[in-house]
Amino acid sequence: MRPEDRMFHIRAVILRALSLAFLLSLRGAGAIKADHVSTYAMFVQTHRPTGEFMFEFDEDEMFYVDLDKKETVWHLEEFGQAFSFEAQGGLANIAISNNNLNTLIQRSNHTQADPPEVTVFPKEPVELGQPNTLICHIDKFFPPVLNVMWLCNGELVTEGVAESLFLPRTDYSFHKFHYLTFVPSAEDFYDCRVEHWGLDQPLLKHWAQEPIQMPETTETVLCALGLVLGLVGIIVGTVLIIKSLRSGHDPRAQGTL
What is the extent of the structural domain holding 170? Predict the structure, then answer.
């Protein structure tokens, strides 16, 4: 059985650690105001991806540690020039968490699954025939295991797709973005298909180009133009009738008595 087919039959035991350098969010605790928030997120689990170590500043991704290549990957090259982070630090934390995970596996075989909320929207205002990007935002889910597919007119799409890392939330759940480059047309429709342990069945989020409606200003102008033309027609018709009546009673047109 393929891993993606087993995702609803296997319960992975997961250990997650989310640290906020300047903001600590606890249930029942009062809100703490801060000018800037620095966040790092780390998790390990028995399902792929087996783990992640990443860092954010004010909800902007700074870097993550590639666990296979064992190196730091900066979101922007400029970040790597201004700051530094040794990948071994993240790898050491991952190793410790894996050891703790093995201990937890012996004590528990159940992880509560929180189902995701999914929205689909275009990156830019839609113009038919102009390239654009569809964004599928998958939010408020746990554990960080997803199977996401793009469909166009019900058919699987594999080209022009991309995705973000699993991004942490302050409530210790996760969110993630999936992207699809496309050229809008009036006939095509798209779906973002999401599978997660918290869902009883795959969730389909639909997007299609809405029919182009005539702007209200255009409708108003056309209505006013029609009214003006109608009034002009009435006036012209009245003038012609009056002229016709006058010509029929012109004394010069009658003989001398």
Answer: 117-208
